[in-house]
Amino acid sequence: MNSDLIIRISAFVGIFAIMAVWERLDPRRPWQTASGKRWMTNLAMVGFNTLFTRALLASGAFGAAVLAGQGEVGLLHQLNWPWWVKLNLAVILLDGVVYFQHVLMHAVPILWRLHMVHHTDVDFDVTTGVRFHPLEIALSMFIKIGAVILIGASPVAVLLFEVLLNATSMFNHSNVRIPQEVDRVLRWIVVTPDMHRVHHSVIPRETNRNFGFNLPWWDRMLGTYLSQPSQGHEHMLIGLEQYRDPTRLTWLRLMALPFVGKLGNYPTWPDEENHTMAENTK
């Protein structure tokens, strides 16, 4: 097993365990459904996705960084800057790529078909942070590989970014209580659970806000930041309006959802189906 994979798996297991215990000891809001089947579905998804992406492209973004470094391909390899400056810049730029990718997942209906699997979860906890369709994970991997090559990110920067992205995704999807005074300061540095929970609101205008996974600066700079949900964190509905029955959101149904599911009034660039549904709700 490659050393980068060992580091990533170890970080994943450690952060997952910490957040899972924390949200059980001090939950931010009551769970709306029994967690057993949800956890089985979400964890089965991350297990399948890991095997799928390793089979599709074993070395991933880390391997692309190694090859780019050997050929000195990419912007940062052309700059004679200190290594720590290039390391931090690479992580920030890669995070920006993930932000814009996330926006596109909501903006383009065909991409939303993949991403809505993540949003169908009617609860919000640490396992929601790993609930993604394998085709979205594969697309994300190819985008990251292209970004790594163009940026010229080092293997260390890519490994650090991947670990941070996985860790913050589990952190900001967790159902944990953080004092408001702490959250108010913390969300200037990292996306907090209260900040990202807004993005999982059933209300479309809230769903299309707070796209950041790691750094909160992109949302603040580009006008997609929303401080609080209109219904409050304790009473807001999580998920999508067209998928409210958690018993029907099995692993097999979620795998098929992008091909047979209804978009709802969520994509910001609606296609004909979405436009018709929006008109009918006026």
Q: For the record, give the distance between the C-alpha atoms at the N and C termini, rounded to a whole number.
A: 55 Å
Largest sheet: none
List the uncertain runs.
272-282
| Range of strand content | under 5%
Q: What shape does the CA trace take?
A: globular
Overall pLDDT level: 91
Query: What is the domain tally?
Result: 1
Label the structural class. mainly alpha
Query: Which bin fits the share of residues in helices?
Result: 55-70%
Number of strands: 0
Task: Output the radius of gyration.
Answer: 19 Å
Number of helices: 13
Q: What is the succession of H and E elements?
A: HHHHHHHHHHHHH
What does this protein structure show overall?
The protein is an all-alpha fold and about 280 residues long. The chain has one domain. Helix content is about 60%, strand content about 0%. It has 13 helices and no strands. The longest helix has 25 residues. The protein starts with a helix and ends with a helix. The C terminus is likely disordered.
